[in-house]
């Protein structure tokens, strides 16, 4: 403290008509009463956090209960057995959606009009088939048997828009349906058909856009993903999904579309697949492990190659085809450590303000994962007493969606510590799931946890 600064302070206090208490004067000369700086290393543990990880089939309760995501696909035939009559209660029941919502899980969803199977069938409702005069193509090829509707037919387009609006009205009010894989077109909703086996090619961009538009307003709280980075990915900020995850050749082609764009082989249109490098910084990347290669090949004999493809894809979730069983448990854990966000407080600096009424907390945030959390959930600092009860909290000013891979964000937050009665406190951090109102995210760092709150510092002399 220089003499000049000391004189300036005394003058300011005197002219202001105020006085400085003995405690404040002591802090002024001797520094802050309490201060602490702690650094944390990243942990190598497997954490199951909201909005990321494996997304097993929702109907498989034994597997689904282990993770934070579940996968649901619904055919038009299942959704609307009679025109204008939607089977939401049955969809909820068969997929255990009430249970998963109560458990704080989220849904990866896909609407499908054509799912190849072992027997001849249709995945559109009978009433639509009759209304369109049977417009479409019944196929039997190496993918299986099924029916490809005429996607250019006005009644199919109009009926599809009504179906998506109904889905949105029922499921799109919040982020429970977190990830919408924009299906609708092609085998399995993957925007491709086996046209070399006689199935009519998919429609051009103008018609395809009519299948996209209803999703925009139906699911405003969701991340929407496309099978390839088509123009809407760039225009509307959609993400992408890869249903051939782990297949080296197919994934390299898919990554090539992301980095360089390309021609759409299904229709021959140039420049409708757009280059969207680093799309994962703004929109989610998902998909499932390929069915064309065995799990042993992917996860036992070529795990490093599979992990490399997943890392380079910056995936947030994988499902519904995922590793199951003890034989793949270790490999599954390695995959989970390379999906989505892994937030950490790299350094925390906490100190009392001069008047002793506030704690000033400076946090250095870092994301050791491959993608951010795409929703800006509320973050709080907590002060816990010796019984681990919350006695004070203060919201941290941070947008988690901006905390992308390897990026550091520094926040400063004031926490009220005036008139605290206990002599032992813990400073904790928590990220709030808006569906439960409780801390829900486990930080991937070597630190103590109390529930889903992470302990940043503790001390015994705050009130002394």
TL;DR?
The chain has 464 residues and is an alpha/beta fold. 27% of the residues lie in helices and 27% in strands. It contains 14 helices and 22 strands.
Write the layout of secondary structure elements.
Elements: H1 3-15, H2 22-30, E1 35-39, E2 53-54, H3 61-64, E3 69-75, H4 76-79, H5 88-95, H6 97-102, E4 106-112, H7 126-131, E5 136-141, E6 144-149, H8 154-171, E7 179-181, H9 205-218, E8 223-226, H10 231-236, E9 239-245, H11 248-260, E10 262-264, E11 269-273, E12 285-289, H12 295-301, H13 303-313, E13 317-318, H14 329-336, E14 343-352, E15 358-367, E16 379-384, E17 390-395, E18 408-416, E19 425-433, E20 438-439, E21 449-450, E22 453-459
Parallel strand pairs: 2-13, 3-4, 4-7, 7-8, 8-9, 9-12
Antiparallel strand pairs: 1-14, 5-6, 10-11, 14-15, 15-18, 16-17, 16-19, 19-20, 19-22, 21-22
Helix pairs in contact: 8-9, 11-13, 12-13
Structural overview:
The protein is an alpha/beta fold and 464 residues long. It folds into two domains: 142 residues, Immunoglobulin-like (Sandwich); 284 residues, TIM Barrel (Alpha-Beta Barrel), CATH 3.20.20. The protein is 27% helix and 27% strand. A hairpin with a 2-residue loop joins strand 21 and strand 22. Helix 11 packs parallel to helix 13. The radius of gyration is 27 Å and the shape is elongated. The N terminus is likely disordered.
């Amino acid at each position: 403290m220089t003499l000049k600064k000391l004189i300036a302070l005394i003058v300011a206090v005197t002219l202001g008509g105020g006085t400085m208490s003995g405690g404040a004067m002591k802090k002024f000369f001797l520094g802050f009463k309490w201060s602490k700086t702690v650094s944390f290393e990243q942990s190598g543990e497997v954490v199951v956090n909201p909005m990321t990880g494996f997304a097993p089939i929702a109907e498989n309760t034994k597997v689904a209960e282990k993770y934070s995501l579940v996968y649901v696909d619904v055919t038009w035939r299942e959704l609307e057995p009679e025109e204008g009559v939607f089977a939401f209660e049955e969809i909820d029941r068969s997929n255990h959606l009430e249970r998963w919502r109560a458990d704080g899980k989220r849904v990866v969803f896909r609407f499908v009009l054509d799912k190849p199977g072992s027997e001849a069938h249709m995945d559109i409702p009978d009433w639509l088939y009759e209304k369109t005069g049977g417009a479409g193509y019944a196929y039997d090829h190496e993918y299986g048997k099924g029916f490809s509707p005429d996607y250019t037919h006005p009644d199919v387009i109009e009926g599809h828009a009504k179906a998506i609006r109904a889905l949105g009205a029922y499921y799109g009010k919040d982020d429970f349906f977190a990830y919408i894989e924009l299906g609708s077109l092609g085998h399995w909703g993957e925007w491709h058909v086996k046209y070399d086996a006689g199935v009519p090619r998919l429609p051009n961009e103008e018609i395809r856009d009519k299948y996209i538009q209803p999703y925009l307003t139906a699911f405003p709280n969701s991340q929407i993903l496309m099978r390839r980075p088509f123009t809407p990915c760039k225009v509307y900020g959609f993400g992408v999904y890869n249903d051939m995850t782990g297949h080296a050749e197919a994934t390299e082609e898919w990554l090539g579309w992301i980095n360089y764009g390309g021609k759409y082989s299904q229709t021959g249109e140039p420049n409708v697949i757009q280059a969207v490098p680093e799309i994962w910084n703004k929109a989610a990347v998902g998909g499932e492990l390929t069915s064309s290669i065995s799990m042993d090949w992917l996860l036992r004999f070529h795990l490093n190659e599979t992990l490399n493809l997943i890392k380079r894809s910056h995936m947030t979730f994988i499902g519904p085809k995922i590793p199951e069983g003890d034989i793949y448990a270790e490999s599954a854990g390695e995959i989970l450590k390379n999906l989505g966000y892994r937030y950490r407080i790299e350094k925390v600096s906490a100190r009392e303000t001069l008047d002793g009424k506030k704690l000033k907390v400076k946090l250095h945030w870092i994301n050791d994962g491959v993608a951010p959390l795409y929703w800006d959930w509320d973050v709080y600092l907590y002060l816990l007493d010796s019984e681990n009860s919350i006695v004070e909290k203060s919201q941290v000013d941070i947008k988690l969606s901006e905390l992308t891979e390897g990026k550091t964000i520094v926040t400063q937050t004031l926490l009220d510590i005036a008139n605290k009665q206990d002599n032992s406190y813990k400073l904790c951090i928590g990220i709030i799931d808006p569906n439960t109102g409780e801390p829900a995210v486990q930080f991937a760092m070597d630190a103590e946890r109390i529930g889903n709150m992470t302990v940043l510092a503790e001390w015994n002399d705050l009130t002394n």
